[in-house]
TrEMBL record:
Function: Flagellin is the subunit protein which polymerizes to form the filaments of bacterial flagella.
Record localization: Secreted; Bacterial flagellum
Pfam families attached to this UniProt entry: Flagellin_C, Flagellin_N
InterPro entries (alphabetical): Flagellin (IPR001492), Flagellin_C (IPR046358), Flagellin_C_sub2 (IPR042187), Flagellin_N (IPR001029)
Flagellin N-terminal domain location: 6-142
Keyword DNA repair on entry: no
Keywords, in A-Z order: Bacterial flagellum, Secreted
All copies of domain Flagellin C-terminal, residue ranges: 193-276
Name of this protein: Flagellin
């Protein structure tokens, strides 16, 4: 092919190819800067994008599990608050039962103590029935069913049992306002009604406290997993903004130089006109 041709301008072709490559690289760099991602979609890096989407799905599932655990934590907190109030009321009931077991009190005093006992038992029943969170009460469950709590995005469960506090605690002391001296004395014994109610309440406080501690630990663990997943995802697809900024400036200069080179190459055929001047 003749070097001096008006039909084929090799210099312009080379300059144009170089300018097009620079423009493509510039577009890719501008995309990284504008999105903040090295891999914004499958066109950038199909394999990395597929991994990133899988990680995003795992993170969304773990986030969802933590939201559910937050609800369970609220339910357990309400349950523990109710049991704590029941425990406090039972301690007061024990004090009054000691007085009812005293054979030296008058009938008037016994009636006053019995009225106080009636109020305490009413309060205990109310604490149990009002231990509701988001429409659920695991303290007033006559069936004492198993509660399944999802703990992570993989579908694993933590299970614990609800409790029939009305049957196991309140029913034990529900008639205490009618106790005479002998009944009150029996209620204070090792197997008596007051002792049994207190023991059962403390056992459930311990149980539900353990459930709550597990949920707290799982929430913290899930947050750690999310942090690790987010860090790994960032390392996989995030753009190095400092590097891309420097590359952007270099490409912009290359684009300007390429444009100038193309302009010079396009002017080359004009020199051939000098061959035909007189």
């Amino acid at each position: 092919m003749p070097l001096n041709s008006v039909n084929t301008n090799v210099g312009a072709m080379v300059a144009l190819q170089s300018l097009n490559r620079t423009s493509d690289e510039l577009s890719a760099t501008q995309k990284k800067i504008s999105t903040g991602y090295r891999v914004a979609d499958a066109r950038d890096d199909g394999a990395a994008y597929a991994v990133a989407e899988r990680i995003r799905g795992d993170m969304a599932a773990t986030n969802s599990a933590n939201q559910q655990l937050g609800g369970v934590k609220g339910l357990l907190d309400v349950t523990q608050a109710a049991l704590q109030n029941v425990s406090t009321s039972l301690q007061k009931l024990k004090e009054l039962t000691v007085k009812l077991a005293d054979g030296t009190i008058t009938d008037s005093q016994r009636t006053q103590y019995q009225d106080q006992v009636k109020q305490l038992t009413n309060n205990i029943k109310a604490f149990i029935e009002d231990a509701t969170y988001n429409g659920t009460n695991i303290l007033d469950d006559a069936a004492a069913t198993t509660v399944n709590v999802i703990t992570n995005g993989s579908g694993k469960y933590y299970t614990f049992s609800s409790y029939s506090a009305l049957a196991q605690i309140w029913n034990t002391i529900s008639t205490s306002n009618a106790w005479d001296r002998a009944s009150a004395s029996d209620a204070l014994t090792a197997g008596g009604a007051v002792t049994t109610a207190i023991s059962r309440t403390l056992t459930q406080l311990n149980n539900f406290g353990s459930y709550s501690n597990y949920i707290d630990t799982q929430i913290t663990y899930n947050k750690s997993i999310l942090d690790a997943q987010e860090s790994g995802l960032g390392a996989l697809i995030d753009a190095d903004m400092a590097k891309e900024s420097a590359r952007l400036q270099a490409l912009q200069i290359r684009q300007q130089l390429g444009t100038q080179a193309l302009g010079i190459a396009n002017q080359a055929p004009q020199t051939l006109l000098g061959l035909f001047r007189n």
